[in-house]
Amino acid sequence: MKCFLYAHFLCLCLLFSLEKSYGFEGRKIAENHHSHTIEVSSLLPSTSCKSPTKVLSSHDNKASLEVVHKYGPCSRLNQDKTIAAPTHAEILLQDQSRVKSIHSRLSNSKASGGNDVKVIDATTVPAKDGSVVGSGNYIVTVGLGTPQKQLSLIFDTGSDITWTQCQPCAKSCYKQKEQIFDPSQSTSYTNISCSSSICSSLTSATGNTPGCASSTCVYGIQYGDSSFSVGFFGTDKLTLTSTDAFNSIYFGCGQNNQGLFGGSAGLLGLGRDKLSVVSQTAQKYSKIFSYCLPSSSSSTGFLTFGGSASKNSKFTPLSTISAGPSFYGLDFSGISVGGTKLAISASVFSNAGAIIDSGTVISRLPPAAYSALRASFRKLMSKYPLTSALSILDTCYDFSNYSTISVPKIGFFFSSGIEVDIDATGILYANRISQVCLAFAGNSDATDVFIFGNVQQKTLEVFYDGSAGKVGFAPGGCS
Ligand SMILES: *[C@@H]1O[C@H](CO)[C@@H](O)[C@H](O)[C@H]1NC(C)=O
Ligand SMILES: *[C@@H]1O[C@H](CO)[C@@H](O)[C@H](O)[C@H]1NC(C)=O
Which stretch is the leader sequence (predicted)? Predict the structure, then answer.
């Protein structure tokens, strides 16, 4: 079934992401109960990488990897200037594609209990200049094969299968910074056969029925509307740290890859399906992992498998009701702005459902919740001049005439009763000092799922415990 490999097929499924990097450092010079005081000059990131302020500890049953922004000065991918970083407007547009595909995937699963595979023709794939758009905000570097090759992968809690571009790139590989993985040079690589039961589990992990090429299992996955990876399904040794390696991890060896991955070697799937790396390493780490996304592209965070949560973590249960098989669902119950909980009916949140996603940039709120948030935020920010919108962000300020600003605090409430304070760096999205925007957006449909995006997760330690079915949040996980 060569045609499967060589046609750009694709299904409608999901997600993935993008963002650039200019997170801001958000240097706070004062703080009271209801607002953050921020130096305006800290709204844009610095151009050099600050070494991590926290030493990553490593002990039994725990493996920590450094997390960097793909386009920031801390990224090893950033040296290649031929891979252009996207603009903020492009990032936000890509974010919208990811969100659309998540919404469509979840509404499909509500309606039918699963996604139909829809094979579409190559001509419906937007002709994007493949190297321009870079997605996936956050990357980690892992080792694959024997001898191991270092590969920088976008990590994604919203998808399951892990894949990397592979030689000989039978159909197409986009430009990546590191050498493309060559399975024929790895003594530990094995193709998976079409008749293997693990091959059929690709259907739930990717939303597509697997194909078969000369008896080798073929996977295919599409993200958003214009990026995909198709290739052989195989296993090889995955090395996370010098002490933690797994001899045979199932992954996709991509022979036809296109899209928004801008320079990274592929994707590390951290979803809830059984093919995700989290599930495949469950014997060792019990489906426990945590991460901290740095405040800006000039600092680093971490991704840890195993280990325990910070003592000051607040936990809320994972919900599975409307979350779909891959996503981490949460029960949201409210939002506070400037210390006051907004009057939003609980049904606004329960009708929509909610997920937390590492790959969506801007949190997407139910429309009624976003209007209440925006109205309250604008009122508390009324002394600052509003300026034009930035893509999906409609509440933007010109801070040119200020050296410090005071921004209301924002908190998320969950049905379990906890409140999680969004860090100062998770409230604003700075394009330039004269255009700094409230970093939230509304869904257009009240039944679309609420997405807790990665800007709002900055500096929080987010601790996933897939075995106990809960997620914990602790402030100050990284800087
Ligand atoms: C895996 O299977 C494909 C398709 O049959 C084949 O072209 C490729 O050489 C195989 N790779 C290895 C390393 O055996
Ligand atoms: C900044 O201050 C100058 C001088 O008072 C004024 O002309 C200008 O309109 C102000 N700009 C903004 C964005 O407030």
Answer: 1-23
